[in-house]
User: Which sequence fits this backbone?
């Protein structure tokens, strides 16, 4: 399967045609024709040169676009035909994505970046100069007094070092557990998608057999299946993002997360990418298996 | 986009299958350039499968895209530059599969049509 090779240039193909005609001319000269007659015969034997170049041009230039349009339309048709499949796939992916995103957000907030603040501009740093401490330093009492002034400060932290690690053991453990659960959820979604895809592909074997008999390459079949699953994954991802938002809002109402900003773009990005990659992975194996089918056999057994 | 008549499409479908096998079969004996392949097909089929040489190229391009054959520019025996095609492992496997299909098909047709009438 060739996805990433550089396409041939027009000139390269023209050179190949020229070389072909030259070789054929040599051959005819060796068979006894005059050079002029030999070349004329060679050109005649080649057939329509413009035709060949036109087909090459068409093939290389528009194939990918044509195929993309074709694949998308086909994918849409198939999805309309099996709404149950689409619903299941979208649901599993959405749940997976939501769980991963939520887990990662919490993990990120508590373990990776301790200072995830909802309103970064409202963060003020108070530097203390104390006369009797000979410089910068403040006492526990000062910290306590500041904390009490809740009409000024919504929250106060005293820090000595530049970063504060989350010393809250239960929360730390919970965020690790949450992340592991998120990964498990993702794995489950992937295997769910894999199972659903394998089943539906086995239903569509006859159709794939016909396509291959009509000239679809194995690569085309794989691309077809992958595009379809990517579409589904995309829908699932969007649904997942929506669910994540909802879940995070609910969670922040239930548990006070202490000024932690829960809308974390990187978490959503990571979650979405993970889900799309996982969906592609899940789809790849069934797609390959589908493309390995022998069309003749498939057409025979299905009738 | 070009439109193709029904006749053209039929010819195209038949041609696609035949050309693939013929090209792969020719390349089993060693790397060869387009003109050499055309000649080989012409000669071994005793001019029955006489195709426009140019008609080979879409097939060659398709086979190359599927990685059943690879291509490289080189020099021919009489010092001409040419693009040589080599069959790959996948190509060999495909050749075996398709040759078997063709033989089965030919045998079935022979059975259906019965023996040739006495001249």
Assistant:
């Amino acid at each position: 399967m060739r996805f990433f090779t550089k396409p041939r240039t027009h000139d390269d193909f023209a050179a190949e045609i020229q070389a072909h005609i030259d070789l054929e001319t040599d051959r005819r000269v060796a068979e006894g024709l005059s050079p002029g007659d030999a070349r004329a015969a060679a050109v005649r034997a080649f057939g329509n040169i413009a035709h060949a170049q036109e087909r090459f041009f068409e093939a290389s230039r528009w194939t990918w676009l044509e195929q993309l349009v074709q694949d998308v339309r086909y994918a849409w048709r198939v999805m309309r035909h099996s709404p149950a499949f689409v619903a299941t796939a979208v649901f599993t992916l959405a749940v997976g994505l939501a769980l991963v995103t939520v887990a990662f957000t919490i993990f990120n907030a508590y373990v990776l970046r301790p200072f995830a603040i909802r309103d970064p501009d409202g963060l003020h740093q108070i530097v203390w100069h104390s006369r009797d401490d000979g410089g910068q330093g403040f006492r526990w009492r000062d910290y306590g007094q500041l904390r009490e002034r809740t009409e000024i400060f919504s929250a106060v932290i005293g820090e000595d070092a530049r970063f504060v690690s989350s010393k809250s053991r239960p929360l730390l453990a919970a965020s690790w557990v949450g992340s592991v659960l998120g990964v498990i959820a993702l794995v489950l979604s992937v295997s769910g998608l894999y199972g659903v895809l394998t089943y539906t592909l086995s239903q569509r074997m006859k159709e794939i057999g016909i396509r291959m008999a009509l000239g679809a390459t194995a690569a085309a079949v794989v691309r077809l299946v992958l595009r379809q699953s990517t579409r589904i994954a995309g829908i699932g991802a969007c649904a997942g993002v929506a669910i994540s938002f909802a879940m995070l809002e609910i969670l922040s109402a239930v548990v006070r997360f202490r000024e932690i900003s829960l809308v974390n773009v990187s978490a959503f990005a990571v979650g979405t990418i993970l889900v799309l990659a996982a969906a592609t992975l899940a789809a790849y194996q069934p797609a390959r298996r589908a493309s390995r089918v022998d069309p003749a056999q498939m057409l025979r057994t299905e009738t | 986009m070009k439109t193709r008549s029904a006749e053209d499409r039929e010819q195209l479908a038949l041609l696609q299958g035949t050309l693939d096998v013929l090209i792969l079969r020719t390349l089993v004996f060693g790397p060869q350039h387009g003109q050499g392949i055309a000649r080989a097909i012409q000669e071994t089929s005793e001019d029955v499968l006489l195709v426009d040489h140019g008609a080979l190229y879409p097939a060659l391009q398709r086979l190359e895209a599927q990685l059943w054959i690879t291509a490289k520019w080189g020099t021919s025996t009489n010092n001409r530059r040419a693009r040589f095609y080599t069959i790959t492992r996948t190509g060999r496997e495909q050749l075996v599969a398709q040759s078997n299909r063709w033989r089965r098909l030919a045998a079935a047709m022979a059975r259906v049509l019965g023996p040739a009438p006495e001249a």
Notes: The longest strand of chain B covers residues 69-75. Chain B touches chain A at residues 1-2, 13, 16, 33-36, 38-39, 52-55, 57-58, 61-62, 65-67, 76, 78, 80-83, 97, 101 (CB under 8 Å). The beta strands of chain B are 32-33, 69-75, 81-87.
